[in-house]
Amino acid sequence: MLAWTCPAPLRDGPRVVMGHGGGGALSAELLEQVVLPGLGEAGPGALTDAAAVELGGARLAFSTDSFVVRPLFFPGGSIGDLAVNGTVNDLAMSGARAAFLSCGMILEEGVEIDTVSRVAAALGEAARTAGVRVVTGDTKVVESGHGDGVYLTTSGIGLIPDGVDLRPERVVPGDVVIVSGSIGAHGVAILSERENLRFGVEIESDCAALGGLVRDMLAVTPDLHVLRDPTRGGLAASLNEIAAASGTGVVIREGAVPVPEPVANACAVLGLDPMYVANEGKLVAFVPREHADAVLAAMRAHPLGAEAAVVGEAVPEHPGMVVARTGLGGTRVVDLPLGEQLPRIC
């Protein structure tokens, strides 16, 4: 633990710090103040999990992501699983069915060939499970000491069905907030393996491809308003991004958010808030109230949504802000995290 790096340093420093990769306020500032101004008109519009673009009369979703997790293999998954499922899930959050992936590998000189083979095998198995094909890619090698074994970058494309329009601007007061299951397992699994911490029971990552679950939800109604997979920054970051983009407030019931007991206990010991811990196989949905019961039932009928729960709603009060109602009857503000409680988790 003596080697841990503070993920939330001062915000006015001249150099990139670990917190800039945490999916919170520092990440947003880096994009808005440095990256996007440099891109100019070539830059993206709304910053979403995947861009919806038109090509030849078809609506496509296009996404890319990089993976630098440490360790490479952890309970419940590996960097290969993350690379596939992370990109497939980003496409699914736009309603698209993933079709093709590319994969870029950056290998550090000296990494064992067996390690590369295991990563490739995990990546291939995850792609087959998710129903996608890896059709192109690239491999580079950097000098020893200039990497961390294996880094992966995956990009994906998929088709968005007609009538599907998932974006935070469609959220309105009264929408019901549903999470697909218990939160926090991925971040705690990474931490326990990285630091050799044991909590009386092995906690496994929830890493999984969510395309099938999303298709079952859309089969109930294509009129879902927005989906997000709460990865970096956890559920809190996703809710804050949606609230800010939609101009609505969000109220959640703290006791309704499903947190596994081992994860809750580990977070209590370590001083972490499960709301900010990363997930890799969960989604949060804002659903019109008239469709909420049917969508929830469809989610619970799917293996990846068996623990789905209604946790709150969008409200007209406090626009752009997320608040939680506590078990004692009070409320607390759930801010956008500054950095990341657990760096290098995806």
Textual characterization of the structure:
The protein is an alpha+beta fold and 346 residues long. It has two domains: 46-159, 2-Layer Sandwich (60s Ribosomal Protein L30, Chain: A), CATH 3.30.1330.10; 168-333, PurM-like C-terminal domain (Phosphoribosyl-aminoimidazole Synthetase, Chain A, domain 2, Alpha-Beta Complex). The protein is 29% helix and 23% strand. It has eight helices and 14 strands. The chain has helices at 25-39, 79-92, 113-130, 185-194, 211-220, 234-246, 261-270, 289-300, and strands at 51-55, 58-67, 73-74, 77-78, 97-108, 133-142, 150-159, 176-179, 226-228, 249-253, 284-287, 309-315, 322-325, 331-333. Strands 9-11-8-12-10-13-14 form a seven-stranded mixed sheet. Helix 2 (79-92) packs parallel to helix 3 (113-130) and helix 5 (211-220) crosses helix 8. The two termini are 20 Å apart. Mean pLDDT is 90; it is low at 1-5.
How many distinct folded domains?
Answer: 2
Share of helix, binned: 25-40%
Radius of gyration over alpha carbons? 19 Å
- The CATH class assignment of the largest domain is Alpha Beta
Spans of at least 5 consecutive residues whose pLDDT stays below 50 are 1-5
Tell me which CATH architecture of the largest domain applies here: Alpha-Beta Complex
Mean pLDDT level: 90
Distance between the termini: 20 Å
Q: How many β-strand runs? A: 14
Annotated CATH homologous superfamily of the largest domain:
PurM-like C-terminal domain
User: Widest sheet: strand order?
Assistant: 9-11-8-12-10-13-14
Indicate the proportion of strand residues. Answer: 15-25%
Would you tell me which CATH topology of the largest domain applies? Phosphoribosyl-aminoimidazole Synthetase, Chain A, domain 2
Largest β-sheet summary: 7 strands, mixed
Shape: globular
Q: Number of helical runs?
A: 8
Domain PurM-like C-terminal: 173-318
Pfam families: AIRS, AIRS_C
Family: Belongs to the HypE family.
Organism: Streptomyces tagetis
